[in-house]
């Protein structure tokens, strides 16, 4: 369900490597759900996602600021929204909400399709022009 495709590539090695990591997190959750262990995997997945969002978004934002990406504020707002959603999932999980597994998979799918294939491609073209690897 969460398979890396070349259409997700930004052409920026460090960004693509981090995005592939998010695909692996999503695939792990999907595999656990398929084996009837989704609920047990959610806590682990959420911990990884909280860590991922903090480090990955900081890296992207540093590159965007360094190279004067003109839509930095809008992209950072998307990051802030995604981070808030991940933290809300974590809070809901800790509160014992049982439907979070399917919701989390849908969130990850949407993130991969909309943010990585959409918004991230906008700054990636600028970084490629500046030969950022």
Overall geometry comes to globular
How many domains, as an integer? 1
**Main sheet summary:** none
Number of helical runs?
Answer: 4
From the helix content, strand content and strand pairing, which structural class follows?
Answer: mainly alpha
Radius of gyration: 15 Å
Distance between the termini: 28 Å
SSE order, as H and E? HHHH
CATH class: Mainly Alpha
**CATH architecture term:** Up-down Bundle
Task: Supply the CATH superfamily name.
Answer: Hemerythrin-like
- Unreliable stretches (pLDDT < 50, length at least 5) are none
The total strand number stands at 0
CATH topology: Four Helix Bundle (Hemerythrin (Met), subunit A)
Q: How much strand content do the residues show?
A: under 5%
Give the overall pLDDT as a whole number: 88
Portion of residues within helices: over 70%
Lay out the secondary structure.
Layout: H1 13-34, H2 38-66, H3 72-94, H4 100-129
Helix pairs in contact: 1-2, 1-4, 2-3, 2-4, 3-4
């Amino acid at each position: 369900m969460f398979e890396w495709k070349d259409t997700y590539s930004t052409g920026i090695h460090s960004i693509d490597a981090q995005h592939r990591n998010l695909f692996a997190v999503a695939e792990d959750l999907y595999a656990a759900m398929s084996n009837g262990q989704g609920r047990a995997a959610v806590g682990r997945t959420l911990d990884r996602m909280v860590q991922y969002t903090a480090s990955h978004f900081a890296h992207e934002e540093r590159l965007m600021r360094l190279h004067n990406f003109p839509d930095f504020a809008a992209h950072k707002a998307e990051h802030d929204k995604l981070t808030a959603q991940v933290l809300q999932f974590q809070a809901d999980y800790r509160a014992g909400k049982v439907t979070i597994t399917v919701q989390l998979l849908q969130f990850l799918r949407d993130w991969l399709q909309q943010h990585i294939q959409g918004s991230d491609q906008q700054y990636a073209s600028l970084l490629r022009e500046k030969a950022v690897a």
